[in-house]
């Protein structure tokens, strides 16, 4: 009890002595540091597991382990989540968006470690997923947990979630600018000075922490860009078109597999079917093992032919065999990724999308160089720009993709082709897909918001809008009883309830005005004036505020009766709702 007392005193002292702006800046550094440590730890665990396992692949017969290891990793992940965590961690970024939209910015505390462990087991054993989503989820959970512990409001909790996500992303790629842009473009935080600076602090702190704690092999970094030549511009336009359609294919195939797996209700059946199919895909295409960045490193280091290692094509010296094989990697990467997550693994689509783009850029440039030897296209440039095109198209976040690759390649010498190709890919992807891979399912369920006004409405709670001072009258009452109630009320309508509090209907002042001054009619039962309400004139306590706004708009009413099941609870007035909305908007924009 004394500890709680001291904590309350601390919160009170903090509120008096330290401005919110300064306190959030301080917390952003702490969160960035913690996210950097978490990212470094996750990468270390995954690479250690993977290196240990791959050390057994001494000869070609051992390639059969590609079929077994991912299934084992997913099994361990399912057991961990089902029997230790006893919760579904969700899929990284979509879960964060859901928490911001529907759960008041409050993530469960176990998300700090559950995504970390689940992602380590899944990717470490070869699951074809990215680590970015688990790391970002861990960082966001750190931010949310700190916000909850310090009893902060929705606005600050959401900002701290963004700080955690930005710090984590910057830790992976050492790309603080792209991480900040990611928070605005993907997490859809409002771009204001008050939010920008903490996000930048968290990003820089996370990037520096990861850089200090990890060696170069743990960081996703490709310092291989070559000077951009203006003559290559038409081919980067082609790459943008290719990247756009690869993004559309990614989106289509990803959700097609998800729909198929929804028909499998048993967790263990999903594990067996998904894990077995994944093992088969990895047996045929070993480069799809784990994240995929290792295969991109092979390509940009000039050893693309090693992609054929452990395959029946390993002895082929034919260049077109390599190009065709790379195209198949593009086709099957999204299949392997979705099979991994639907089987029960933990991971994201960030890395798979980027890797598919890298494969696409390599296949295109290598093929053009083979067909037209005089072109002399810099294949590494096409690999890097290709990563941005598909990533920007899948996430529908072109700025994040552009700056991510620009920073990841240690310079902005590719900024022109990055902007051109990624913009083209984005336009094509947006033509076919209204929502990104992260927001598609949330939008279908009405669990997504996009603009500040909708954000404010999502934050509003029906409990805070409920007015309980409206007078009610019993169904057994008479007009005389109602007249006495009218004298004590300032409203022009009255809810009629029975002895158990069940809402029956309403009596309008206009309906009784002609009789209320005639005492001879005071014995008339109140039921003679009863007005039955339609569904658009009442709401339930479970309705969210957006649904209530829609009912006000459709009905034109000034008041809504609120019921809990069939019981009368109170009313919500249009005036009070929009007053609260205006106040929330003013608070939201006050920087």
How would you describe what is shown here?
This protein has 591 residues and is mostly helical. The chain folds into three domains: 2-218, Clc chloride channel (Orthogonal Bundle); 230-452, Clc chloride channel (Orthogonal Bundle); 456-589, CBS-domain, CATH 3.10.580.10. It has 24 helices and six strands. It has helices spanning 2-17, 20-54, 65-85, 93-102, 111-124, 132-149, 154-173, 176-185, 193-213, 233-261, 267-284, 293-300, 319-343, 350-371, 379-395, 398-408, 415-432, 440-444, 452-459, 462-465, 479-487, 509-512, 545-555, 574-589; strands spanning 472-474, 493-497, 503-508, 538-540, 559-564, 567-573. Strands 1-2-3 form a three-stranded mixed sheet. A three-stranded mixed sheet has the order 4-5-6. Helix 12 (293-300) runs parallel beside helix 14 (350-371) and helix 16 runs antiparallel to helix 17 (415-432). The longest helix has 35 residues, at 20-54. The model has no long low-confidence stretch (mean pLDDT 84).
């Amino acid at each position: 009890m004394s500890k709680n007392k001291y904590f309350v005193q601390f919160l009170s002292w903090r509120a008096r002595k330290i401005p919110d702006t300064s306190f959030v800046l301080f917390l952003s550094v702490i969160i960035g540091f913690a996210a950097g440590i978490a990212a470094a730890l996750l990468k270390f665990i995954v690479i250690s597991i993977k290196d240990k396992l791959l050390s057994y692949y001494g000869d070609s017969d051992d390639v059969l382990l590609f079929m077994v290891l991912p299934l084992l990793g997913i099994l361990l992940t399912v057991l961990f989540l089902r029997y230790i965590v006893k919760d579904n961690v969700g899929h990284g970024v979509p879960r964060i968006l859901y928490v911001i939209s529907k759960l008041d910015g409050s993530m469960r505390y176990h998300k700090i470690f559950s995504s970390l462990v689940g992602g380590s087991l899944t990717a470490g054993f070869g699951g074809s997923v990215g680590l970015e989503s688990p790391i970002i989820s861990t960082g966001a959970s750190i931010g949310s947990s700190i916000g909850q512990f310090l009893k902060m409001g929705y606005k600050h909790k959401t900002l701290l979630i963004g700080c955690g996500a930005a710090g984590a992303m910057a830790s992976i790629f050492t790309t603080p600018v792209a991480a900040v842009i990611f928070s605005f473009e993907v997490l859809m935080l409002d771009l204001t000075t008050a939010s920008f600076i903490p996000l930048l602090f968290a990003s820089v702190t996370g990037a520096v922490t990861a850089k200090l704690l990890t060696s170069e092999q743990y960081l996703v970094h490709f310092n291989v860009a070559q000077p951009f030549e203006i003559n290559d511009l038409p081919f980067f336009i082609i790459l943008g078109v290719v990247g756009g359609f690869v993004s559309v294919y990614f989106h289509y195939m990803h959700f097609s597999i998800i729909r198929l797996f929804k028909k499998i209700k048993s967790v263990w059946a999903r594990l067996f079917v998904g894990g077995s199919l994944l093992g088969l895909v990895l047996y045929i295409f070993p480069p799809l093992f784990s994240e995929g960045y290792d295969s991109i490193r092979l390509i940009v280091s000039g050893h693309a032919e090693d992609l054929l290692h452990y395959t029946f094509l390993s002895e082929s010296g034919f260049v077109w065999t390599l190009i065709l094989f790379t195209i198949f990697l593009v086709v099957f990467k999204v299949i392997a990724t979705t099979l991994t997550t639907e089987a029960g693994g933990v991971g994201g689509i960030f890395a798979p999308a980027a890797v598919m783009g890298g494969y696409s850029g390599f296949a295109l440039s290598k093929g053009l160089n083979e067909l037209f030897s005089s072109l002399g296209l810099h294949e590494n440039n096409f690999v890097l720009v290709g990563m941005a095109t598909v990533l920007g198209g899948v996430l529908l976040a072109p700025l994040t993709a552009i700056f991510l690759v620009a920073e990841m390649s240690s310079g902005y010498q590719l900024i022109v082709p990055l902007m051109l190709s990624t913009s083209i890919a984005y336009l094509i992807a947006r033509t076919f897909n209204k929502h990104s891979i992260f927001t598609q399912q949330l939008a279908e369920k009405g669990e997504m918001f996009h603009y500040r006004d909708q954000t404010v409405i999502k934050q509003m709670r029906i409990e805070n809008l409920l007015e309980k001072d409206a007078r009610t009258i019993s169904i057994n009452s008479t007009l005389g009883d109602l007249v006495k109630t009218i004298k004590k009320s300032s409203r022009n309508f009255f809810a009629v309830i029975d002895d158990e509090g069940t809402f029956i209907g309403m009596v309008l002042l206009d309906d009784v005005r002609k009789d209320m001054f005639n005492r001879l009619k005071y014995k008339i039962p109140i039921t003679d004036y009863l007005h039955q309400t339609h569904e658009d004139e009442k709401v339930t306590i479970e309705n969210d505020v957006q649904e209530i706004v829609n009912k006000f708009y459709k009905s034109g009413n000034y008041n809504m009766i609120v019921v809990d099941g069939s019981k009368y609870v109170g009313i919500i007035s249009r005036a009070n709702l929009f007053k609260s909305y205006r106040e929330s908007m003013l608070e939201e924009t006050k920087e």
